[in-house]
């Protein structure tokens, strides 16, 4: 377990960390051949390097080499393995004779890093200078020869830890054999930029890296991967979870945000809590950290975000089922708990048993999984059974779910099966047009005409006239086989995926009510009564003999020919089962009692594919009607 407060890896900036280079300008207190001893923080590796320039204005170091002898300088600086440093310096080279040959000009000048260099007054080049250490720069005298200074900048990565930086020229060829020549090297304005980085992540008290924390949980900032800093700055910003707006400033660490030392591991909850600021659920927080190596390197900033989540979550929800404009059922679900940061899982599940919400009766997911606090499922049918499954979860809330079965039928205001009748174009035959009243959603229409002795609409004697339908089915015209002064009735049925079959029947006859001015007969449509047969839950008038019991289920539906159907009903009360097509043609079919709540019957091959109405005639003089699709 971590301490409640800051855990500092190193309390003091020590020599083992990156630091500033001392006297990189090579300021000297005197000029001449008195040696490097007049240059603070620099020493000679071999020989007696001299100083040039003007004291208190600009000085630099001059070195020579020939015949494997010469001079060199070094200073202390701690390089950490595998870190990237930027090393820069001014360099100028030459030879002491005019027109030196290529042997002289191709001699080397070096910048290298070392461990354990010591001062040696001998001008022999120590073998270790050539054979050990790591090269920062190795180039020929000719590369920098001339009166002008060349600034060299090198990105350098040490392959191990080193503690010294060294410069020296190296002419191993004999001076006597090359015109008494020697090479000369001048160095000034050395700078080293250490690799200061600002790297951190968030974790919990068990050192698990994370960005989502629960209400009341301690939040730790781990900055041990930062490097090279001797101070750091930290402040806090926030915005509501899910917001795309700007973060708003909240608080800074300490009096001015700056803290001496390395970043280490910080308990943000305790540090800011001691300042009177607490992290509350429902927000995401942006932490800004800047590290610096003062006075060598300015601040290096970085930011990361964490969230604080509520530890509570409820899967409760409400739903609203409605009939969509296309005549299918739509369901909008809305979560009761809208806490930010809470994940919502929504699934529409089809089930084989009405009202069931168990996995045992599930037929699988319908469509895709939805998310968010509210969503809508579309395209449902009354001929299938569904339930909604809603789960909530996040890293602080374990999975919790609620399942609610959906009603099969959905009703809407303004549902009607009513229609009007007009007579026109009367000659030898009666021409009658029936116009359906409009519904606020799509419905399918069925039209048929039958004889109505004495105006009765209970018979089933089709005239055999196939109506001419409008494209949307709302208008039907019967224009052959009808005569005046004869009673007929028109049956208009409607259905869709929201509600079951419903119908209206109107008895009529065409009569002559007088003569027109030209002496021609004036005809009129005379109606006798209206009979509606609809689902009682729709709020319509219902004939006692054709009450549709919506609680009774017919399955499977659709059904294939030569297969069996089952109906959940009071089986001992069933007297007869009749199947009728949409033209009114009926057929009595045999049924058997499976148990007290179920009857079964076969759809034999004589029944063609299409839409039918199955009527279950009861011993108590009631009738249950169900739409059945035969495939």
Automatic annotation (TrEMBL):
Domain Secretion system C-terminal sorting: 554-630
Coiled coil: none
Protein name: T9SS type A sorting domain-containing protein
Signal peptide, first to last residue: 1-18
UniProt keyword annotations, A-Z: Signal
Native source organism of the sequence: Flavobacterium jejuense
Record has Ion transport as a keyword: no
Origin organism lineage: Bacteria, Pseudomonadati, Bacteroidota, Flavobacteriia, Flavobacteriales
Superkingdom of the organism of origin: Bacteria
């Amino acid at each position: 377990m971590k301490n409640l407060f800051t855990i500092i890896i190193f309390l003091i900036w020590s020599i083992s960390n990156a630091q500033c280079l001392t006297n990189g300008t090579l300021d000297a207190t005197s000029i001449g051949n008195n040696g490097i001893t007049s240059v603070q923080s620099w020493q000679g590796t071999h020989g007696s390097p001299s100083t040039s320039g003007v004291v208190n204005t600009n000085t630099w170091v001059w070195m020579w080499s020939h015949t494997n002898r010469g001079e060199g300088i070094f200073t202390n600086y701690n390089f950490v393995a595998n870190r990237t440093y930027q090393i820069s310096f001014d360099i100028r080279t030459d030879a002491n004779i005019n027109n030196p040959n290529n042997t002289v000009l191709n001699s080397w000048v070096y910048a290298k890093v070392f461990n354990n260099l010591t001062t040696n007054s001998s001008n022999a080049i120590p073998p270790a200078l050539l054979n050990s250490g790591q090269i920062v720069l190795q180039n020929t005298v000719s590369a920098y020869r001339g009166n002008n200074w060349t600034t060299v900048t090198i990105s350098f990565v040490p392959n191990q830890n080193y503690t010294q930086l060294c410069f020296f020229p190296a002419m191993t060829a004999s001076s006597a054999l090359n015109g008494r020549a020697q090479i000369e090297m001048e160095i000034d304005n050395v700078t080293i930029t250490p690799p200061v980085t600002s790297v951190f992540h968030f974790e919990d008290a068990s050192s698990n890296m994370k960005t989502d924390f629960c209400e009341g949980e301690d939040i730790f900032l781990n900055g041990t991967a930062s490097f090279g800093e001797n101070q750091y700055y930290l402040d806090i910003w926030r915005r509501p979870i899910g917001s795309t707006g700007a973060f708003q400033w909240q608080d800074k660490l300490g009096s001015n945000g700056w803290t001496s030392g390395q970043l280490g591991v910080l308990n943000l909850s305790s540090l800011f809590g001691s300042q009177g600021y607490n992290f509350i659920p429902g927000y995401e927080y942006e932490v800004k950290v800047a590290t610096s190596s003062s006075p060598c390197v300015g601040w290096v900033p970085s930011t990361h975000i964490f969230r604080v989540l509520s530890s509570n979550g409820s899967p409760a929800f409400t739903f609203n089922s409605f009939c969509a404009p296309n005549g299918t059922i739509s369901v909008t679900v809305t979560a009761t708990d809208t806490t930010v940061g809470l994940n919502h899982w929504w699934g529409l599940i089809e089930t084989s048993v009405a009202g069931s919400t168990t996995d045992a009766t599930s037929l699988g997911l319908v469509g895709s999984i939805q998310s968010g606090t509210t969503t809508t499922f579309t395209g449902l049918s009354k001929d299938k059974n569904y339930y909604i499954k809603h789960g909530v979860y996040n890293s602080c809330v374990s999975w919790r779910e609620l399942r609610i079965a959906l009603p099969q039928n959905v009703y809407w205001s303004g549902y009607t099966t009513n229609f009007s009748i007009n007579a026109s174009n009367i000659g030898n035959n009666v021409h009658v047009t029936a116009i359906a009243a409009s519904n606020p959603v799509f419905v399918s229409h069925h039209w048929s005409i039958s004889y109505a002795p004495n105006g009765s609409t209970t018979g089933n004697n089709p005239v055999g006239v196939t109506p001419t339908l409008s494209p949307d089915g709302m208008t039907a015209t019967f224009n052959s086989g009808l005569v005046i002064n004869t009673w007929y009735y028109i049956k208009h049925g409607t259905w869709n995926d929201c509600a079951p079959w419903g119908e209206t029947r109107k008895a009529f006859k065409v009569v002559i009510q007088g003569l027109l001015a030209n002496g021609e007969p004036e005809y009129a449509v005379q109606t006798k009564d209206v009979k509606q047969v609809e689902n009682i839950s729709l709020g319509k008038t219902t004939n006692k003999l054709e009450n549709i019991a919506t609680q009774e289920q017919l399955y499977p539906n659709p059904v294939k020919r030569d297969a069996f159907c089952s109906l959940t009903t009071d089986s001992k009360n069933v007297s007869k089962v009749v199947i009728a097509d949409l033209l009114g043609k009926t057929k009595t079919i045999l049924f058997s009692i499976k148990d007290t709540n179920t009857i079964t019957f076969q759809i034999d091959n004589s029944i063609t594919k299409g839409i039918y109405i199955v009527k279950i005639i009861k011993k108590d003089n009631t009738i249950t009607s169900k739409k059945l699709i035969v495939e």
